[in-house]
Amino acid sequence: MSDLDRAIAQLRSCRPIPESQVREICHKARELLIEEGNVVTVAAPVTICGDIHGQFHDLMELFRVGGDVPDTNYLFMGDFVDRGFYSLETFLLLLCLKVRYPDRMTLIRGNHESRQITTVYGFYDECIRKYGSANVWRYCCDVFDYLALGAIVLGASNTLSTGTEPVDEDTEIEVCDQSGTVMSRFPRPMPRPNSAEGPARSPNGGGGGSGDRTGPPGSGASGSSGGSIGNPTGAVLCVHGGLSPLIDTVDKIRLIDRKQEVPHEGAMCDLLWSDPDEIDGWGLSPRGAGFLFGADIVKIFNHRNDLSLIARAHQLVMEGFKEMFDASIVTVWSAPNYCYRCGNVAAVLELSEDESGTGLFARSNGDVGRSDGGRGVMMEGETFVRNGPARRYRVFQAAPQDSRGMPAKKPVADYFL
Amino acid sequence: MEPPQKPVAPPALPALPTLKLLDLSNLPPFSKPIKRINDGPDVSRFLKSLAYRDIGIFILQLNHALVPRHQPNTPLPRVFPLPSTNTVSNTQSIRALQQLLEVVESYLDEAPPDPGPRRFGNVSFRKWHGLLEERIDGLLDEGRLGETLKVGNGQAKEEVSSYLLGSFGSSQRLDYGTGHELSFLAFLGGLWKLGFFQDGQQQDGEIEREIVLSVIEPYLRVVRKLILTYTLEPAGSHGVWGLDDHAFMPYIFGSAQLTRPINSNEATPLEGSVRGAPRPADVTKPTAVEDYRKVNMYFSAIGFINDVKKGPFWEHSPILFDISGIKDGWGKINKGMIKMFNAEVLSKFPVVQHFTFGELFSWDLDPEAAEPAQSVHMANQPIVSAAVAGTSGPPPPGSGTGAPWAQATRMPPASSGPGIPYTRAPPGPSSGSLGARPTGRSFGGETTNAQISVTKAPWAKD
């Protein structure tokens, strides 16, 4: 058993690893992350997760529900740390898994992966308490600076893979509970009879760039079923917060110099801080960082960038996930009973692999159709909605708590000495 | 357990300072209190202000009154448990505030929580708060309150009213935190200065005890009801690493209720518990908490945590859990709570930035205040801006006007006169706000429902 495997085993049992080992792993992780682009390309199948916030036992529950690493390919959209009791164990475990299985684990940065935020919201205090010094906090923060800002999921299927129960081809959304039992299913809306190839059914042009709306159905990369709903979907953009008024194409994200503390404003800040909202255009965020953005912004952005969906985290949703704006954006939240009191359930989003066999689109590194961005269509001001990938949400509750042993009381803060 | 008290009283100390009454024949020019703390470094200026001095005096005065007292001719000390909730005070001023709180609470019936879709905080809280804003003027016109607040052409009323209005959370952010709690303390302190509580028993802390047990605790009950009804989020939560999501004062006054007894002219004890007090470790036992929450403010606060949180106590409240391991009794806890309040509430930019200053709580320099010294607490702050500067990040916020960590956690030395008498904040995990300058944009969007524990940018101006 390698040192890394031992560290993983120790962290899985929720015990912190020695400071020297943290240093080593953070160093290795940085070497790995430095090679990643700002926007990582991930091939489906993938399980997309939202905020964890140091809820280690709930992360274990997530792995139980979603499948273990490396069997399941995971994408975590940030906010591993702060607020919870086990930010340290949570982040280090995810980081170790990243180093051990780099192709099966994608970590992108959340607004809490920042020096300034962690000093206000708990992770700094936790490191001091668990190690007696800020060294481990510093090592972790140095890793934060190298985390990618987003990910593009390619090759997601229009149909769901078979879960615990057989699934129809026309199922667009399936919601399962933590034991895999199907709670609800939503079929794709049927095409309108007089416009069978209406905008929502428009095939993805595969490598074809912006011409996707004019091509005949089923052209391009072709669908898995050959039917009107069987076309491969556009890509899925994953980002912690949302969009930025300074970013109109995914390529612009790639141009950011990300290896720094999260700035207080600008594109990088916005990607990690913004929220979708029921407004038109852009609005000021009550958070004091990032912006609010409306449905029009999302639809234009998705169209321009050949995206079918934006997956993001950053906001508690009581049901674990929330699709907005005609399913053009979804919030995924993976911290059940947030802060021990919110009473919410958590969710992960599974996208299955398009097995139509073309593979063309899926392996193209996410740049397909983005160079010209479909500007012509944009200028017409259309709010064209791409046919999204089939989505399975696994909803789960907080891990049972009775098995956790009570630790010894630690020395109190100096106020009480 | 405390050994029987010594028969010989210790040497009498100079009387504990109490908040001075205003000279009603020579009133200052009251005005609507305004915000003064706009930037991190303003916090250190605040710590030298008359307002800071007065808040400190008032807290310590109230705290001292709750400490159990030796009684002549009996070995049993006099303790000061919470009265039962339906006890009506005979003191007119206290009764007036109890009635005010009852009225304010009744607005909940007029603003039932919105059943519609929401993320977390319930927008109907805005309606409740609107009712308060609408009616606060009338509320303060009634009876003894109205008489007291007539002074200064009604301007004193404006000052007092703004503190009361700030006591019940933010309707914009749908949150509640220690800053709002502080505002209620200022409301009471303002009334004190105007002589409102002069009708009570002034000797040996009697009226102070009534203020805490019969006004502050009922206020906390109203606040808890608001938090539950509208799922108000903790303002600026440190998550599990804060003392409590919303409150601080009940931990100060509740620990005072359980410290070892003193004679009235003695200082507040720094260790020891009164005979019969629950043990500090009992806060981790739900049954003990249920037993004591009706009589003790500390246990009342813990009881509320147990009501709203699910999970092991040591995990969701590790700071309180650790404190429950203290061996030197409730006096030690009380001393620590006051220090911690000074450092984590009064010295923290995100909390005190909302405090407003007028004549009752004045921004003027306290002539007695010493120049704050660099504290260990400050020195131990993670130096974020240095880390930022080491990369290609933006310049540290507030550069040019002082380093962002230079705000706060400075205290006058104990010998420098009144105020909270501790010379330094501890070097503990201070996790302070960085008190940064806002970045130029002015925020205040109202379109998004607040959520519990939504993260706000610490550099944002409210």
Please render the helix and strand layout as text.
The complex is a heterodimer of chains A (417) and B (462).
Chain A: H1 3-12, H2 19-33, E1 39-43, E2 46-49, H3 56-66, E3 74-76, H4 87-100, E4 105-107, H5 115-121, H6 123-131, H7 135-144, E5 150-154, E6 171-176, E7 182-187, E8 235-239, H8 250-254, H9 267-273, E9 275-276, E10 282-284, E11 291-293, H10 295-304, E12 307-312, E13 321-324, E14 329-332, E15 346-351, H11 375-379, E16 391-396
Parallel strand pairs in A: 1-5, 2-3, 3-4, 6-16, 8-12, 9-11, 12-14
Antiparallel strand pairs in A: 2-15, 5-8, 6-7, 10-11, 13-14, 15-16
Helix pairs in contact in A: 1-4, 2-4, 2-7
Chain B: E1 34-35, H1 42-46, H2 50-66, E2 69-71, E3 74-78, H3 92-110, H4 124-139, H5 143-148, H6 155-165, E4 175-176, H7 178-193, H8 206-230, E5 233-234, H9 249-256, H10 286-292, H11 297-308, H12 313-316, H13 318-323, H14 329-346, H15 349-352, E6 356-357, H16 376-379, H17 384-390
Parallel strand pairs in B: 4-5
Antiparallel strand pairs in B: 1-6, 2-3
Catalytic activity (chain A): O-phospho-L-threonyl-[protein] + H2O = L-threonyl-[protein] + phosphate
Enzyme class (chain A): hydrolase
Pfam families (chain A): Metallophos
